[in-house]
Amino acid sequence: MRLVIARCSVDYAGRLDAHLPEANRLIMLKADGCVAIHADGGAYKPLNWMNAPNTIVEIDDDDGHRWVVSNHKKETLTITLHEVLSDVSEELGDDPGLQKDGVEAHLQELLAASPTSIEEGLKLVRREYPTAIGPVDLLCRDESDQVVAIEVKRRGEIDGVEQLARYIERLQLDSSLGEVRGVYVAQSIKPQAKVLAESRGFTWVEVDYDELRGMKSDELKLF
Fold first, then answer.
1. What is the DSSP letter of 63?
2. How many domains does the chain have?
3. Could you identify which of 5, 45, 75, 95 might form a hypothetical disulfide with 85, taking C-beta atoms 3.0 to 4.6 angstroms apart as the criterion?
4. What are the tens digits of pLDDT across the range 119-134?
């Protein structure tokens, strides 16, 4: 992990053009090649980023010191460093991954046992399907034999949608899987997460935990 605090400007060229004017920012370079640029606000979401795999080239010329980040999609992120205030690198080592709480882990088990509760015709390929950036909760195939990556959360927020997008990027590097589509599943999903999921081409499904456990609320009533 390399963390650089610098007065910088940033230019992105790809699906659209975007520019961040000169200001002090945090630049994060992760060991997997992911690059993210943060301001001092905006919570966890970066101002701009490039998901791995990337190629990073450092250039010194008359235009100053620049990092040019590019990927196979021909997207380019150019970071011009006007003044470096701090530059720290640290090896974080292997991460054990997110430990799901009991309900979320059990929800994943229930959905793996009954994938048709997510979508008619789904067949489970594997739980915790491995990728270089972590396991996909459920990998399935649909009625047309297309691969479906499913991210399961107790509460569906936008970070879960971003997580699913990163997994699908990794899965699509494996040509044997073919085209991969995503489904975001949770007990409840926030409106913003639904909008983001749809904008990424994913579908979303809200499921009833008690119903999956065979404990429908009407069965608990005395009258």
1. T
2. 2
3. 5
4. 999 999 999 999 989 9
Q: Same domain for 158 and 190?
A: yes
Q: Is 175 helix (H, G, I), strand (E, B) or coil?
A: helix
Nearest-angstrom CA–CA distance, 77 and 56: 9
* Owner of token pair 């691969």: 147
Stated pTM of the model: 0.56
- Joined together, the tokens standing for residue 93 give 């080592």
Residue range 24-47: mean pLDDT, rounded: 89
Asked if 164 and 157 touch (Cβ cutoff 8 Å), the reply is: no
Query: Tokens representing 49?
Result: 């980023």
Please provide the size of the chain in residues.
223
Q: Provide the residue range defining the domain that includes 153.
A: 102-212
User: Residue 162 is encoded by which pair of tokens?
Assistant: 């971003």
Output the pLDDT for position 164.
96
Q: Which of 68, 89, 110 is the last residue of a domain?
A: 89
Side-by-side strand order, sheet with 203-206:
123-129, 136-141, 147-156, 180-189, 203-206
Higher pLDDT, 218 or 32: 32
| pLDDT tens, residue by residue, 84-121 | 999 999 988 877 665 555 578 889 999 999 999 999 99
DSSP alpha helix (H) spans, the chain? 102-113, 158-171, 191-199, 209-212
Q: Is 75 exposed, middle or buried (0-12, 13-18, 19+ CB in 10 A)?
A: middle
Predicted pLDDT of residue 219: 42
